[in-house]
Design brief:
Largest sheet: 12 strands, mixed
Helix content: 25-40%
Number of strands: 20
Oligomer: single chain
Length: 616
């Protein structure tokens, strides 16, 4: 990193004293990457230093010896190189050093967390729990709340820590699964985003709270034999909405990045966009939803469900990673690894709610149930991308709700357009510009607007695990690739109609920066191949699907004591942000367990009498 990093920092115009400090911070950052990925970040700068000039400029020299113009040209050519692995290594070389040069403030006046001092590193005393839950996100948290409030002894086990507001870099390292560096490989390079914290991904999601359409649920019924399309989940959706405070924010809280989109839609004669419902009733528009809400307004699981669960006696064990699981006739044993070493939890029932990337690894590694070989198959996600635009006037997109506006167009029925605006430190790895062009955009960040979209995907992949690190294979379906291209071009047209004077498309191409509406349809179709589009995958799902690995009551096929409850059980893509659906399934499972408990011996009788159905 020393030569390339020093040269990159010099080209960025950073003063020498600051550059030296940034270089030291970059080395420390690389050392903290997950062990499986660390060699790539260590070797990538050397690759660019020694081979970048020959690959990009056909010159036998080192990158650090190039003049400013040639160094900038080399970076641009590597970014758009025809070989995907070259583009990937060039990205890995610059991301750690870019992070150190962008503003990344820490929020002021952070409120005390309601779970502060209420998590434990290991159980207070040996006991046989009624239910152990692995995972405290949208699948585990509501279930722990429902069972604890009915008097059952519950252990909620979480591999992550209690999330606290901080800088973007701190949140990416601490609150995201493997530093947000999990990647699906196939015909595209697709970062797959998930959280790892008490509260799961709900701590770092956008807060968008949408129910799947009735048509989607009816499709699930046909695939998996459920009855969701008949309204079976409605009462659980209603309870979820009430518990997490789902409301529609006022438009004046959305910020001007969303306003730019609405202006462009109006200029094109399109119908207006709609405001997305969110679980942040007291939101003040700080714009940091995906990096832990700085005010606590977003009612993520660690604020809406788990505090009451803890008050009712639920023991939250964090951080603790499940290593082995054994099911016997009268109990399930879970071996865990925490900061103080290994320990064991025993329970009459186990619910695995570790998320669609981690749950199948636990099922396969421990051969749980009779269908364990199918765990990890049928991986699905919502591939997403965003378009960036520059406006003559200040936009100040960082102020307001980042994902406050939604939009649908009839010609792209599988595409959900949703607003998104992130701080510079989060945008840098995803923006397809380097050198002077990158500095140009970040120097004018106050004039930038962005808007994104996600696809209800048609393709599938698979997930396997190396230790606790997910290995993902996924190909973007050709129809999804076409829709990605059309969605990108649609947003470019909208931004130009709104008055943008420059639009940056999320593709690795020298033609990705447009200066007029006429440029939009001139880009070669070959520049939109899946491996060239800068995308990320959100909402991983489907890896332990109903009808394949679990039954309609979410019990592992062939198991009497183990259930699964997270997005891995989805029969197909919901096409919307999934937290409401997962929470509804969690409450439905809790109700099922409570109703089944009496007389089965699988859960003991609750303290205080007969177990009641879940209710408010």
């Amino acid at each position: 990193m020393s030569r390339f990093g020093r040269r990159w920092l010099a080209a960025s115009g950073l003063p020498r004293a600051e550059a030296a400090a940034a270089l030291r911070a970059t080395r420390r950052r690389i050392a903290r990457y997950p062990a499986l990925l660390r060699p790539a970040f260590q070797l990538a700068p050397e690759f660019v230093e020694w081979l970048g000039p020959i690959l990009a400029l056909s010159r036998w020299t080192c990158a650090s010896r190039l003049g400013d113009d040639d160094f900038d040209e080399m970076l641009e050519r590597l970014e758009s190189h025809r070989w995907g692995f070259v583009r990937g290594l060039a990205l890995a070389a610059r991301v750690p050093v870019i992070e150190q040069t962008l503003p990344d403030p820490t929020p002021d006046r952070v409120p005390v967390h309601p779970l502060a001092g209420r998590t434990r590193r290991r159980p207070a005393r040996p006991r046989l729990y009624d239910v152990a839950v692995i995972g405290t996100g949208a699948g585990g948290g509501p279930l722990a709340w429902a069972l604890s409030r009915r008097g059952y002894e519950v252990a909620a086990i979480e591999a992550g820590r209690l999330a606290r507001p901080g800088s973007v870099r701190e949140s990416l390292e601490r609150d995201y699964l493997h530093h947000a560096s999990t990647v699906a490989l196939g015909n595209c390079f697709l970062p797959v985003i998930a959280g790892r914290a008490v509260g799961g991904t709900t701590v770092v999601n956008s807060g968008t709270s949408l129910r799947p359409t009735r048509e989607t649920l009816e499709g699930w019924d046909r695939l998996a034999g459920t009855r969701f399309g008949e309204g079976e989940l409605d009462r659980w959706f209603d309870l979820v909405d009430e518990r997490i405070g789902v409301t529609t924010p006022p438009r004046d809280l959305l910020g001007r990045s969303a306003e730019m989109l609405e202006r462009g839609l109006a200029a094109l004669g399109r119908p207006p966009a709609f405001v997305l419902p969110r679980n942040a009733p007291e939101c003040r528009g700080d714009g940091r939803c995906c990096f832990v809400c700085p005010t606590g307004a977003k009612q993520s699981v660690d604020r809406s469900w788990l505090p009451q669960a803890a008050e009712a006696g639920c023991e939250i064990l964090a951080p603790a990673r499940a290593m082995r699981i054994r099911e016997s006739d009268d109990r399930v044993e879970v071996e865990l690894l925490g900061p103080e070493g290994p320990f064991r939890v025993e329970a009459r029932r186990l619910v695995v709610a570790a998320g669609a990337l981690s749950t199948p690894g636990l099922v396969r590694a421990n051969r749980l149930g009779s269908a364990w070989r199918g765990a990890g198959d049928s991986f699905k996600c919502h591939p997403a991308a965003k378009v960036t635009a520059h406006f003559p006037e200040a936009v100040e997109g960082a102020h307001g709700v980042p994902q406050g506006l939604g939009y649908k167009i009839p010609e792209l029925p599988t595409v959900q357009f949703e607003g998104i605006f992130t701080p510079p430190a989060a945008l840098a790895p995803m923006i397809p510009a380097t050198g002077r062009r990158l500095r140009w955009w970040f120097d004018r960040y106050a004039h930038v607007a962005t808007f994104g979209f996600m696809i209800r995907d048609r393709g599938t992949g698979w997930v396997r695990s190396l230790g606790d690190f997910p290995l993902i294979r996924y190909d973007l379906h050709p129809d999804d690739a076409r829709d990605v291209r059309e969605a990108i071009l649609f947003l470019a047209e909208v931004f130009f109609a709104a008055g943008a004077d420059r639009v940056l498309l999320p593709i690795s191409s020298r033609a990705n920066e447009l200066v007029s509406p006429e440029d939009v349809r001139r880009i070669p179709e070959a520049d939109f191949t899946p491996d060239r589009v800068h995308m990320a995958a959100f909402h991983p799902q489907g890896t332990c699907g109903i009808g394949r690995v679990v039954d309609t009551d979410l019990a592992l096929l062939g198991s009497r004591r183990i259930h699964v409850c997270d997005a891995s059980v989805f029969p197909d893509s919901p096409g919307v942000n999934p937290q409401l659906t997962i929470m509804a399934l969690s409450l439905r499972l809790a109700d099922h367990l409570l109703r089944q408990a009496e007389g089965t011996g699988l859960i003991r009788r609750a303290r205080g009498g007969r177990p009641d159905p879940v209710r408010t």
